[in-house]
Amino acid sequence: MPEFRRADGRIDIKSLTLLEIEAALTGLGSERFRALQVYKWLWQRGVREFDEMTNVAKAVRASLAERFYIPFLDVVAVQKSIDGTHKFLWATEDGHRIESVMIPDDERNTLCVSSQVGCAMACTFCLTGDLGLRRHLKPSEIANQPLQVRQKLDEQARISNIVMMGMGEPLHNLDNLLPALEIYLDEQALNFSHRKITVSTVGLVPQLQKLAEALPVNLAVSLNATTEEQRRQVMPITRKYSMEALLAACRDLPLKHAKRITFEYVMMAGVNDSPADAVRLVKLMRGIKSKVNLIPYNENPDRPTIRRPADAVVKGFQHHLVTHGIQASVRVTRGRDISAACGQLGKADPDKARVDEDRIQAIRIRREGEGYDASRFAFDDIV
Ligand code: SF4
Hints:
Layout: E1 11-12, H1 18-27, H2 34-45, H3 58-67, E2 68-69, E3 74-80, E4 86-91, E5 97-104, E6 109-112, E7 116-118, E8 133-136, H4 139-152, E9 161-164, H5 174-185, E10 197-201, H6 205-214, E11 218-222, H7 228-234, H8 243-252, E12 261-267, H9 275-284, E13 290-296, H10 311-323, E14 328-330, H11 350-369
Parallel strand pairs: 1-2, 6-9, 9-10, 10-11, 11-12, 12-13, 13-14
Antiparallel strand pairs: 3-4, 4-5, 5-6, 7-8
Iron/sulfur cluster is lined by residues 119, 121-123, 126, 128-129, 167-169, 202, 343.
């Protein structure tokens, strides 16, 4: 791993793996087993100073403090939605803003974690993409989000699930994501089960294969289209990795523990919510251990031309998938009043937003030219 140093020359100790901390301690003349004690203080107790590590010799603590520092995110604001969702706005050491969102429901508390400042993927429906990529988050910044949310919320709000679906494309930052995921999974650190961690991607094929080989976490692919052309319009990454190549890779992924890939499908009225889309989606899922998560678009003033489909359209779409053997759910929108819903994280750039609206509008006009009328959606016509 590269070292992350700050201006005073000290190294970010929370971006190191346990093995790297062991090597550092050996270099300082300390026993290797002390590394596990330090690691637990960092990730289980969440200490802010080396001097709080009371079972580590004073001289070792002093040497550690000379060479390393313990990074934390600064809490800028915590907003609470009327539905109980919490949005955490953090500042990084170099002054960037990132967000995490805690979504409680009856059975679980899911934390949506950011992996980058901004994002390079430019998905048309997403406000985070408007920022462009400012930088990758370090392992410590990815892993500090659940640690610090745990520290801020009381025990009743214990995080049960983590989804890497906040700001950024996690697999674009795979080098820092992998050590952060190891910290999530390590029982000596944050101790989450692999069943409770989901990494979402737009479909960076080589990185998706590397992640599936490296760790047994759940995978989610943001699909959002049923033809190559449609997907190129809403997800520019399709120009690099076609939908066909992505789905072929998904068919062949070495999935462990009987896992299924979740395909996320943001439904946009008149863009990708037609009966023909539902029919194509069923075909696309053939041969893949999959489930589909339909996400009705969260309308917002920065994308006035992208509309949310009517509930009946969403239900009809789901019905078609389910009756054709596809496990399909509809995501309930959460945290909309505090801009914490899907695709709303980060600040919008009005010029970029306009370009995206033009692209979406072009798809809609073409679809209407093909005789598609969203107001007369009827699955009965096609099944
Ligand atoms: S949807 Fe995800 S990958 Fe696409 S621009 Fe937004 S943050 Fe990036």
